[in-house]
Amino acid sequence: QLSELWFVEGREMKLGSGMSLICIFSLYISVPLSISEAEGAFDYFTLSYRSFGIQRRSDNGLVLREWAPGAEAVFLTGDFNSWEKQSHPFTQKEYGKWELYLSPKVDKSPAIKHLTKLKVLNTSRWAFYVFGLISGPFLSVSLTFLLSRPQFQHPRPPRPSSLRIYEAHVGISSPEEKIASYRNFTRDVLPRIKDLGYNCVQLMAIMEHAYYASFGYQVTNFFAASSRFGTPDDLKHLVDTAHSMGITVLLDMVHSHASSNTEDGLNYFDGTDSCFFHGGSRGNHSLWGSRLFNYSSWEVVRFLLSNLRWWMEEYHFDGFRFDAVTSMLYHHHGIGTSFSGNYSEYFGIHVDEDALVYLMLANHILHKLYPQCITVAEDVSGMPGLCRSIEEGGLGFDYRLTMAVPDKWIQVLKEVRDEDWDLKNIVQTLTNRRRGEASITYAESHDQALVGDKSLAFWLMDKEMYTNMSALTAMTPVIDRGIQLHKLIRLLTHSLGGEGYLNFMGNEFGHPEWLDFPRKGNNESYHYARRQFNLVDIEHLRYRQLYAFDRDMNLTEDKYGWLAAGQAAVTTLNQADKVIVFERSNLLFIFNFHPCNSYIDYRVAVEHAGKYKIKLNSDELQYGGHGRLVQDTEFFTEPMPFNGRHLSFPCCAAILSEPQKSLLISF
Hints:
Elements: E1 14-15, E2 19-20, H1 22-39, H2 42-45, E3 53-56, E4 62-67, E5 76-78, E6 91-92, E7 97-102, E8 118-120, E9 129-130, E10 143-144, E11 163-169, H3 182-196, E12 200-204, E13 207-208, E14 221-226, H4 232-244, E15 248-253, H5 298-314, E16 319-322, H6 325-329, H7 353-369, E17 374-377, E18 399-401, H8 404-415, H9 423-431, E19 439-441, H10 446-449, H11 456-461, H12 477-496, E20 500-504, H13 534-537, H14 543-560, E21 569-574, E22 579-584, E23 587-592, E24 602-606, E25 611-617, E26 634-636, E27 647-651, E28 661-666
Parallel strand pairs: 9-14, 11-12, 11-20, 12-15, 15-16, 16-17, 17-18, 18-19, 19-20
Antiparallel strand pairs: 1-2, 3-4, 4-7, 5-8, 6-7, 9-10, 13-14, 21-22, 22-23, 23-28, 24-27, 25-26, 25-28
């Protein structure tokens, strides 16, 4: 019984010029109480996937239950009845629900076989597996249900204190020009993730989507694992194998909108435009062409909360990255809106209180029922309290994505010469986050890899990546600059930018080219819808050097835990010298971003007295550096005040002798 968990003391919170959250907080408390009264238990309400859709009884009888309040009649058709459209009608129940019972066959087997194709009206929104052609009209009648139950051998790993996320898409996880499978990912990619030192994999495009090129963000079936990658058991095996490696698994959760498809999606499920969504223009996203959920609807909340429980219970995911939270929070969906940080932008009639309360409900049940669960919000607005506890009046997320950081790096590389980089602005972007709210930072994600943009490596080295990445020949100036800056950008982002770190698959080794899914515009080609991991396996290619640096960067963080430490203390930010020095977690980070200048006896401030040693050096040969720093050099503090510290020491010529290098020294 979860209803008792909801009796939280309501207290007024003042924000800005007298604005208050008490109305939203009170609304949040009243919602679960009314649900508990009507449903018997809030737990039962959030496990509705056990009563809706297709359910098998102990005698192999089948019960089908759907919610279609606007329908006049509902029928089941499929292989089992030779696609007779009206031979198996549902019976109408109260509150818009419909039911159908199918008795077992004479031999006591279910009336519908495993992997039988079915259709309920346009589609069954509770279908657990959708199987059919990858494209084309046949998909609309290729709905199946799954009778198996998960078999997991390994427990969920402990929640990481330092979250290092590997963002991945199963379909593009092979060098081959094809759609890769769950089994391929399990066999070939998970070992690489483990080797690289990432302790979490974030899986994109798992929820079923008809259009492959949507990157999984136009969901047609919320309870079905995408069949284009394999079976549900294959996905469960992937998750279980990741857990055996100590890797946490997050699901990219799309509850902000849904595909507008009518044949295989939720749209017009009961013949109206307002079954799951707002009716009229409010229910349509003007930029995405998708449908927007009505979060004030009892049955929509049942559907969405049960969806979260389904993925946690049936597939053993460890949490979710909630997509497009900005679109959910505001009636304007962030369209044509810029956020300056003024509280009036976050509190007012333009906030969708129903969506806000839904997110509070979602975070509450996830963290109460699964204390180790991780929730991440993709929000560009900077909503205050997003990552504060619900008891404090927050929305309850664990992390938010620092979406301004990758935009800053792309802007710098596109528009500014190296010698003109504004380091103060870069550091401000990396450190500008809400105090007391954890952030996941990244230099680039899937957004920057998509066609129309470039990855950081491609911005840095462009066409020379095709011809000059061999370590058997001398580096050209373009490749040299690109490799050095690629390492510096990632380490600076990793160490200064947040409490978690994210990397999109392949970018760790400077994956060339862009990402483009098969579509009419590229003659349905898979050439760019893949990740060329084979480049790392060729010993003489410099991709291997970038891979090695990314691995050792993560392993060094795993040892010293700077992501779990407090925000860094920047002691040197010299715009003219292009030098950044900061301390975090008993580590001293030194960056020289100058394109040509070297420095001798460059003094750096430190907090702790003693001996310092080099722990990570971007100039090592194995990382594509020049090997000109003395790795076993030791440094001893001097009682000389400098830059706000009582102690300091000079970096000899061996330390900052090379431009565009980074150094990590431990105490």
